[in-house]
Structure formats: C-alpha cells, structure tokens
Amino acid sequence: MFNLKYLLLLALISYTLQDSHCLVTVEYCEKEDDEEGKIDNGGIDHCTSAGEGICHHCEDGYAVSSNKKSCISFQNCYELEEGDKKCKECAYHYHQNSEGNCVGTLCQQYDNKDVCTKCFDGYYLKNNECKKITIPHCNSVDEKDETKCTRCLWILADPVDGKCIAPTTWIQGCSKYDTNGKCTDCTDYYSKSGDTCKFTSSCPKGRTHVEFCDICEAGFLEDYDGICIGHDGTKDTSSNATRIKIDFTLLLFILAILI
Q1: Which helix or strand (DSSP H or E) is residue 144 part of?
Q2: Cα separation of 24 and 182, whole Å?
Q3: CA geometry: angle at 168 spanning 166 and 171, to 5°?
Q4: What is the residue-averaged pLDDT of the chain?
Q5: What is the DSSP letter of 6?
Q6: Range of 130's domain?
Q7: Which of 47, 117, 236, 257 lies at a CB distance of 3.0 to 4.6 Å from 41, suitable for a disulfide?
Q8: What is the model's pLDDT at position 57?
C-alpha cells in the first residue's frame, strides 16, 4: 500500500506538469464587450473584419479572395493570389511552397532565393537549417558559438557569460528581472512590494478580471487567447494555465488523504 501511494503521487505530478509551456500567468483587467467591439464582417461569410463590401481578414482556415469579396477555405493563409488557387501571404510561422500552399517553418526570414537567413526566437541557423537553442530561456545565440546566448527572454536581463539568469521563482506581474534574478519592475495593474508584485484589489468599472499566460518558454509565443504556441507547431491546451492550478489543488487534497 505504501508503494502504491507514492506511485499515484508520481503519476499525478507527471500529469500536472505536462503539456505546459507557460512560465507564469498574469492577471489583467480586460475591457468589457461593447458595441464597438462587435465584429463587422460586412455580410461576408467567415470574414472577421470588413468595410465597404471589402473583407480585410478571415477566420482561421480561410483566406481573403483575390477580389476581397469573399473568404475561401485555405489553410494557414491570409490572402490569395489572382485565381484563388495559391496563397499570396501566408500566416505567421508558415511559408509558401512551390505549389502555393503554406507549410510550417522555423525560419522567420528568407532571401530572394528562398534560402533561410534568420530563424524564429529560440532557434539558430546552422547549415541552412533552424535548430533548437538548448540554453534555457535564450532567444538567440552567437553566430559563431551556439553555446553562448546573446539575447534572453524579453523579461530577463542581458546574458551573463553567455547564459540567461532566471529567477528561482517566477513572480506573477513582474515585467523585468535583473542579473541577480530579482524583480525590478511590475506590469500594469500590479504594484511593487519589496521583491514581489501585488495585483490591484479590484478592476475599474467597465473592465473584467481575467488571467492568461504572460511569459512562454523560449521558442513559444502567446496568441490572442494567452495560449503558448511554439514555432514548431506545439500548442498548449486552452485551459492549460487554469488547469495547472486546479491540478495542484487536487494533488494536495489527495496527498492529505493518503498521508
């Protein structure tokens, strides 16, 4: 029975920590929906932004037609070329292949010969291929030495001896750390209190309290919903940040029962 308890705990811990690329969440006072925030699709199906009969942007999975009068089913593309068979502008993290389709890429910038010249943050270019940076919290490395970081996550200080200095514990609401891993500044709706940040007691009228991911691991970006999406296509679950907190509460409850 003793061994069974600890096997269960290990399984729960493994489940709790998996599938998350968010380092810390942040609380925020979001403006409540109003008439101005409503989508104007101009009567065009699957359009999310329109004006005077012209669609400017379509839903995910659709692209603006060449005449801008409709949204056509086309994966990972913003706008189509004349004839609506090939993509004119691919979505972020995607690149047009010879067939005119948009395929996932780790390359952020290409030259006029379609050769990669710059990789997305968290990756470095080696032999015309983007490879994952192995230095924790590092966005870019020295072109001649991939073991030396030249730029860390935006929230951290500049590298020290080619390494990124991260805090022992990430502080919610902190917007900047120094080279000792100490919080030096707080984001909106937070006030500095010693070495930590405290959220304001309440949101002003017209705004609602929400929580989302503020800092993702290197190689990941937050989307509009505050979900970490990797340049390699990896994506957290939409309820991931909240689920982690719930899982830990459940874990502590079960631990109390078992012990």
Answers
A1: none
A2: 15
A3: 85
A4: 83
A5: H
A6: 105-153
A7: 47
A8: 95
| Contact (CB, 8 A) for 164 and 217 | no
End-to-end distance of the chain based on CA atoms, in angstroms?
A: 12
124 falls within a domain:
yes
pLDDT in tens, 68-90: 999 999 999 999 999 999 999 99
* Domain assignment of residue 137, yes or no: yes
Q: Which of 100, 72, 73 is nearest to 86 (CA)?
A: 100
**Which of 221, 214, 24 lies closest to 120, judged by CA?**
221
pLDDT band at 2 (very low <50, low <70, confident <90, very high): very low
Q: Structural domain tally of the chain?
A: 2
Residue 113 lies in a domain: yes
Distance CA 80, CA 58 (A): 11
What residue has token string 């998996």? 18
Q: Which residue has the tokens 């996932």?
A: 104
Instruction: Flag whether 45 is in a domain.
Output: no
Q: Helix 240-258 vs helix 2-17: angle between axes, to the nearest 10 degrees?
A: 170
For CA atoms 218, 219, 220, 221, the dihedral sign is positive
Give residue for tokens 């003793």.
Answer: 2
How many residues comprise the chain?
259
User: What is the SS3 assignment for 258?
Assistant: helix
Bridge partners, residue 60, by sequence: none
